[in-house]
Write a structure and sequence with these properties.
alpha+beta, NADH Oxidase, globular
Length: about 210
């Protein structure tokens, strides 16, 4: 099911098409396709090229591993994620490798790698749904995440499925039009509170030449 964003300004089609469905088909995802997603993640930018992201991935072809990730999910996410053929946990390394100092950009950079991952998934005809609803401590323990690393998000990955198979409440959410706050609610020009869209940045740049 396609549900492209209704944008106020033109953006790349890939960005407009990316969304987070819950209706998955149980068809397996090919190994080479999965490798392509992680290759996209590999080329994300990061502070000092630290590349703090780590991923644990499990497919239903390896049911014990997949179950280990699935059982970390919150109950609300289990209600639909059970059909996803692939589950992934993103993890952030919280210290810089060269000096051991805290890396306050680790979550940010892991998010950039994850966005590359989900955009590549969209380009490959897949869907990906990122989840905050999981038991962090259970994931840390059951998936043997070492000290100095923080579980960030779970991601369900697979091919689009039939929304009619979702519970009614989730089906309604699946079909609901997508929405976002307007740019003016969170982007300011020069300083906090100055309306970005009301400022003619191009004209100001040209007049200063």
């Amino acid at each position: 099911m396609e549900k492209p964003a209704r944008t106020h300004f033109h953006i790349h089609d890939l960005l407009a098409r990316r969304w987070s469905p819950r209706a998955f088909d149980e068809r397996p995802v090919e190994t080479d396709t999965l490798r392509t997603l992680f290759e996209a993640a590999r080329w994300a930018p990061s502070s000092n090229n630290e590349q703090p992201w780590r991923f644990i991935v499990a497919t239903k072809q390896h049911q014990t591993d997949w179950n280990r990730l699935f059982e970390c999910l919150a109950e609300g996410n289990r209600r639909w994620a059970f059909r996803a053929p692939v589950l992934v946990l993103s993890i952030a390394s919280m210290q810089f490798e060269d000096d051991g100092k805290p890396n306050r950009h680790a979550f940010h950079d892991t998010g950039l790698a994850t966005e590359n991952f989900v955009l590549q998934a969209t380009a490959q005809g897949l869907i990906a749904h990122q989840m905050a609803g999981f038991d962090v401590e259970r994931a840390r323990l059951d998936l043997r995440v070492p000290a100095g690393y923080e579980p960030v998000a779970m991601i369900a990955v697979g091919y689009p499925g039939d929304s009619a198979l979702l519970p009614e409440r989730l089906r309604e959410r699946e079909l609901r039009p997508r929405d976002r706050r307007p740019i003016t609610a969170w982007t300011f020009s020069g300083q906090w509170g100055t309306d970005f869209l009301a400022t003619d940045l191009v004209q100001e740049e040209e007049s200063s030449r």
